[in-house]
Amino acid sequence: MAKDNYVTIIGPPRSGTTWLFRYLRGHPDVFVPFIKEINWFNIATGLANENQIANIKARYEEIRDNRAARGLDLGEQGQERKERYEMQTDADFRAFFEKRVEGDMPYFDISPGYSGLDVAGFARLHATFPKAKVVILLRNKPDRAWSVVHHVKKRRFPEADRAFVISYLSNAQDGPMTKLLSEIYATVTTVFDPSRVLCLYTEELFAPKTQQITLDRLSDFVGVPSHPVGDFEFSANRGSYAQMPWSFRKEATLKGAADYTWAQTHMGYLPPAWEKDYGRFLVPQS
Questions:
Q1: 28 domain-assigned
Q2: Is 208 a member of any domain?
Q3: Rg (CA), the chain
Q4: What is the pTM of this model?
Q5: Is there a contact between 222 and 106 (Cβ–Cβ < 8 Å)?
């Protein structure tokens, strides 16, 4: 039976969680399920959106039906999807990992939706995994928000113009323009000792000079040997978007002002992208 080496990566949507999921799937000393976003705690606590809930059933049925049509059983990935679909309790969720992980190997739950959990949600996570560790990815607010704009337009409003999507997100409660990283960290550390929480800058995952150093910090945090990024297929951030309007960058930076001062204090420095926007919009001009 797996020991209590659960690790969750929560850092909010469009912060690099998919990149880390793909990298960690190739790490020989950790376990990462086929399912990237299990979304147990946010769905169980009523904080998930309709798409996240519907996806649980849809993905299971898709794999089940496709494999049945070819005369195949569910396979490993299909079995994971089945168990997730049938999951009813926190004990079921823990058992999902325990049956798949042996010994001391850390096991990861990469669900960006957990960034929306409140104190009670993280307390429930802690009760299920008393020795859990939490990784929060920190991405410069305007860049993350602009990535969300493109993602939401593609997935939810393909026919809408970008201005509509920007307005929609700007007014969404706890959306990418309003949710603060400093608030997420404060909520997590209300439940977890800060020594069990690691913050990493997303920008440093994608920068060649800092990429391996950042991954080594993560490996050290979870207690496994370093795994070289090497020729990892997704070692570069391949996202490409239309140019961000200056007004959007300014608005997002101003709404995230508290994050810049918090990150400077907590991390001890700001990456170049953060520093640039901080200097542009938050430092008084003489």
A1: yes
A2: yes
A3: 19
A4: 0.93
A5: yes
